[in-house]
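Holo prediction — adenosine-5'-triphosphate.
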Amino acid sequence: MTEHKETEEKRSLNFIESIIEEDLKNNKNQGAVYTRFPPEPNGYLHIGHAKSICLNFGLAQKYNGRTNLRFDDTNPTKEEVEYVDSIKEDVNWLGFEWEGEPRFASDYFEQLYEWAVKIIKQGAAYVDDQPSEVISSQKGTPTQPGVESPYRNRSIEKNLNLFERMKNGEFDEGEKVLRAKIDMTSPNMHMRDPIMYRILHQEHHRTGNKWCIYPMYDFAHGQSDYIEGITHSVCTLEFEVHRPLYEWFLENVYQEGDIKPRQIEFARLNLSYTIMSKRKLLELVQKNIVNGWDDPRMPTISGFRRRGYTPASIRKFADTIGVAKRDNVIDVALLEHSLRDDLNKTAPRVMAVLNPLKIIITNYPEDKEEWVNIENNPEDEAIGTREMPFSREIYIEQDDFMEDAPKKFFRLAPGKEVRLKAAYIIKCEKVIKDTEGNITELYCTYDTESKSGSGTEASKRKVKGTLHWVSAKHAIDAEVRLYDRLFIDEDPAGRKDKDFKEFINPESLKVFNNCKIEPNLKNAEPETKYQFQRLGYFCVDRRDSKPGSLVFNRTVPLKDSWSKKNK
Ligand code: ATP
Ligand code: MG
């Protein structure tokens, strides 16, 4: 039943695909499907942007179209080149390629200026001399009409003259703005003579000091779509109320025969236990609450990457959640599920001990060592097996031993037996302690006939527990960082009475710097992913790991520990 339902769902189109297919059927835009991803370069991309990227690029892929990467860089005060570079890297990492070179709204400043002049000449825009507070006080409310500016009916000549002088830098910031002349009584507040241009005597990251007037988002965005021949301009729901304005601007500059972009809105992605506001993410970075934008706890694409997420798992997640027309919150566990699903198939299993406890196998010869054979991934036989060294001294996890073990403790305890994965059965004979009573070592014996895979009776003998281990003299040292969710509340940004920072999880990072890893990982390359047996999925940190001093990040535990912990 469920399977049937799933295939049915897979086959049905989402509402944006339905729109596109209808357009294609009517041969609208000569069958072109041209989308764009338009980030403002004022922060690093987050998982919400990833949703938008997968959607825009995915639609173009599905319908043989193209996608532009366009930087919406109309706000010179907040934008930086670092963000431009990170955004390009993130889009590529997710597995997408934009059409040609990246575009910049700032490349269109000249054209936008000419169109503004055209709109003034059509009598549909005017220069307002009032300060911004007065302009906003005249806006009215949704139920109360606004008040027309005394400058609204200036002559076209006067407006042209003033706008040109604005451009030439003759006025101070805030002294004048250009406004569209639409309707101060419109029930849609965005149609009440919105501002098209403001004066900012600021250097821009690309145009330098060439301009001191900058177009507002609504004017720049739609016209940039038009310049690029975008057919379907997909954006998030909060822009639905801007759509009449998007269309009004377009009507004022549109030329018959051109592609007319159509704005389509979908619900933005919200994730539980996650904040998605760039301003708040920036605050975490600036206050050093996290270690930069790509801190593995950040919901940024670069953070997920560093944490060990795969592009495929993020794309799969974006696909699974689909597109909605109403705001909703997606459980972050779904993203983690998509990740585990991918890593389970692709990440080789290896042995690593985070909190080592030394075991001396007293009946194993001192100078002997042997190699045991172990499969790399039971989910993927094609990647075969590897050899791991075994010797008289090994490490197991401190947690895997208890001196006064309860009955149900199926790991190692005095007098009890366990199997060392892919090797022998050992029995704990003696617990060695220091003068303060801390356990320092265990003396064990091994069943000489019990080697896994050797075919003997003892090799098939069942014992309750199987432990991961590494050979002490062969193991390599590593630092391992265990990450957990950054917030302990499902909706950390949703409380009016509390700051989101109050919900930071104090245990979101635990560092283990005395870990012992099997020697096969000696030359592990940054970003390689593994399953540390029984511990979770891990990856080599792309920033801090070096040959000889390896650093691993835990991507996710093997199971979702939160569903139990918090419910
Ligand atoms: P702001 O405009 O407040 O700086 P933003 O999150 O809208 O933040 P943009 O850089 O403007 O950032 O976003 C680029 C694109 O990504 C836009 O098309 C936007 O609609 C989309 N986007 C942003 N956040 C989400 C989200 N949570 N879910 C889906 N799409 C998103
Ligand atoms: Mg935005």
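READOUT: The longest strand covers residues 425-433.
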